[in-house]
Design goal:
7-stranded mixed sheet, 9 strands, two-stranded antiparallel ribbon
Length: 245
């Protein structure tokens, strides 16, 4: 337990033991999800499921914790799994290279998690994941839009019913309301107005994609400080829910 001795000093052995016995799932391993995984590993979570279909691209290097010159082209789940096991060899990591949607949830959640971090970018799968978590009474922390922002002081954590300004949060509230869900989802979001001048249309960036599903999406400018904070705050909310800190 020496590697977690400084954390034990702060929260005590009982809470660290609880984290070691906890099961977390992170769905979406982009810039936000990667930092969330890193933080959960360094907090001693004992079992982590990673779900993402994508590979690391050169354009990820500005913001993804696993993106290095020599990891380009590798599956994000494999790279992040290596980081987690390097941090805590006792952590059991399930690295699933799958596209997250309702039809793959049985595979992703074949063992019921204690908490889920939603770091999905696409609206459709995100709605399905949030609704599924609520339907199954599983705590979920959801990241809203982190791109097109530059002000760390505007990042907040709140129930989805208390989010504002963020266009993604607004769309989620609308679609979830149709399913009878208006609250009960913890969100990390920014109330900074997105910089639309940093948005580019699909196809304007030469980047190979191994797998495309759904409509093409706009390319969004990202500031690495913001995406990292989103991931760290999502992990913070998850850990504090698990140990009731």
């Amino acid at each position: 337990m020496e590697r977690f001795s400084r954390l034990i000093q702060l929260i005590g052995e009982d809470k660290l033991s609880h984290l070691a016995g906890s099961r977390a799932a992170i769905v979406g391993l982009g810039a936000v999800g990667g930092f969330a995984a890193e933080a959960l590993a360094r907090c001693g979570i004992g079992h982590i499921t990673l779900a993402d279909f994508d590979v690391i691209a050169v354009t990820n290097i500005n913001r993804h914790i696993g993106a290095l010159d020599w990891t380009v082209g590798r599956a994000k789940v494999d790279v992040i799994k290596e980081r987690i096991t390097g941090i805590n060899p006792s952590c059991t990591v399930d690295a699933l290279r799958v596209f997250a949607h309702r039809d793959t949830f049985p595979e992703i959640f074949r063992e019921r998690p204690d908490i889920i971090i939603d770091a999905i970018d696409s609206l459709g799968p995100k709605i399905e994941l949030l609704a599924w978590a609520v339907e199954n009474s599983i705590d979920i922390i959801s990241s809203m839009g982190a791109a097109l922002r530059t002000d760390p002081s505007r990042i907040k954590t709140a129930d989805i019913s208390g989010t504002d300004v963020c266009p993604l949060a607004r769309n989620l509230r609308k679609y979830l309301r149709r399913r009878g869900i208006e609250s009960g989802i913890t969100c990390v979001y920014s109330d900074e107005v997105p910089a639309k001048s940093a948005l580019r249309p699909p196809g304007s960036e030469a980047e190979k994609e191994d797998f495309v599903r759904g409509r093409e999406r706009n390319i969004l400018g990202s500031y690495p400080v913001i995406t990292a904070i989103f991931g760290l705050l999502a992990a913070d909310a998850a850990v504090k829910k698990l140990i009731k800190l």
